[in-house]
Sequence to fold (370 residues):
Amino acid sequence: MSTRRHLFALPLALAPLALSGPSRAATPEGFKIRLAPMPGIGHLVPELARGLGYFREAGIEVETIDVMNYIDDDFYSTKLLNDGTIDAEICWFHRVIFGIGNDEPARAVFLIENSPHMTILVANRVRDQIHSATDFRGRTIADSAGFSTRHYLTDFVLSRAGLPPDSYTAAPAEWLEKPDELVAALKAGKVDIISSMEPLTSRLLATKLVTPLYRLTDAAGTREALGDVWPARSLYIAPRYIDAHPDRVQRLVNVFVRTMRFINSHTAEELIARMASGFFSPDVSNDVWADYKKTKTDEIAKVQPGLTHGDYSIPPAAARLVADVILRTPFDDSPEGRYRRTAAQSGKIRPEATYDNRFVERAMREIQRS
Fold:
């Protein structure tokens, strides 16, 4: 059973010129939005907005929804946007692309992260032999399998170096799910390169057996590896809702812009201090609270470099990059693989239809910085 958190709003309004912040004289009609953030860091922006009072000031009541209460697999979540179960979702940008290709469209209206938070690590025993992706030929690489982000981005890095996907030997996919086995393989010299994400990256670095080669954990490192930033976690909404409620979408995006500016200008410790309770597990006992809080603070600190700074719109070239990379990826016959293959073969996906930057551009232009 899910835990639903409600943010009860005062009947405040955003007058046409009140985008700079809350106005005591403004009296907009409040509204409710059903928001589905992905687990973990997907709650960062909405729960901080709640803690800062930004939803209340905007006249927005938020009901937090767990999509797994309504569908068997979360990759079908854009269906819930289109049948009215949820109004907005925070998840990976590529969900928009696959939703469009399966006749369940969505459009990203705010970019939270512009990097995939992936690191490509080289075993220290071969560090003097591997200086770039051009040296990956013939090596053993642990990058997961199938159509995982780690796998298709590793293949794309190889392609930019002029190498075909079969240039390397794939390590057993389960190693990335079993860190002890992966570390043992490193020590035994059975793996040369690892594509990882947190918390595995930190665990591997702590062994002193690997060194980062490509850090796709911030905008600069992602551009170096991929040639552009990589739209990752985003706020997206069904086109029918955008068309029916443009004022609501604008007010929601206004809150996200204000909140992200706060995130960009404060430390992880300061963010934790202002976070609403919905960001934390309700089951943590007092005797372990300090350690739990430190873990959550470290989690935020690690993702902060990969969060968007200054411009929260979807870059058109980056949207094209994501579409080009993921739609040419081979898909297996698992339910998600078939779902993605249907989208890739649909001929319905146009990168420019994956986002709507009108609302975030207006908010960035009209909301005063504090």
Observations:
- The two ends are 40 Å apart (CA to CA).
